[in-house]
Amino acid sequence: MRDSPVSIGIYRKHIALYRYLNNAWIFTDLLRPSLKSQAKLLLESKSKAKRRYSVPKRSGVVFSRRLDKDIGTLFTSQHDRGIFETNIISMVSRVEAFIQDCIALVAISHPKKLGLLVDGKTGVPLDLFLGTESREEVIRRFAIMKSEELMYSKPAEYMRKTGEVLSIELDADLLTDFFEIKASRDIIVHNSGLINDSYLKKAGNKSRGNQGEELKIDATYFRHVLVTLKKLSGSIQMKTEEVYK
After folding, report:
1. What would the pLDDT profile of 227-239 be if each residue is shown by its tens digit?
2. Which class for 44: exposed (0-12), middle (13-18), buried (19 or more C-beta within 10 A)?
3. What are the residue ranges in the chain where pLDDT is below 50?
4. Strands (E), the chain
């Protein structure tokens, strides 16, 4: 029963995330057939004229000229891979924000948990302490600050800390799936989708290819990402509900 502020807060954030993830799937599923059909029309175009497309610049717009086949190739690329990459980047960010919010919620309600988020050398910043009127507000702002800082660490580290702060234990295989998804997201953003040594180390035995190869990002993998992220969110919500009744 969700009767504690922590349980209610995490449940609401889980439902919002769940809806966002489902919307990402619905949007992608509905848009891809249109991308495919439009790509077919453009690729079959016999026009030799370059059409003008307006592109923003610092002030106003500039016109960039493209053949129909150029735009057809762009649509094909988005249908085959691009739309999945864009959504995976956004979905992982939303899940990390959810994890960060869960940590902050627990730490605010149970301030002793803040000890798990500091390294023993740093305390509450003086400007935060002096600039805040109430103890509760100091705790709230400090918890938010430390939970945000935690998310800059490696996924294995921030998930370990998440388990400690939330007093839950997540399935090891679910976590390794998440680490691989996070590693894939990093490769999409930082290495043009090409597998490198960093990906292989982060993904471990869940890695999906060899160094130098293009990481496979398709409809099957996108479904795996969606299901895994929903499962992770749901697991955090259910397990915290058991702890914070």
Report:
1. 999 999 999 999 9
2. exposed
3. 126, 128, 130
4. 51-56, 61-66
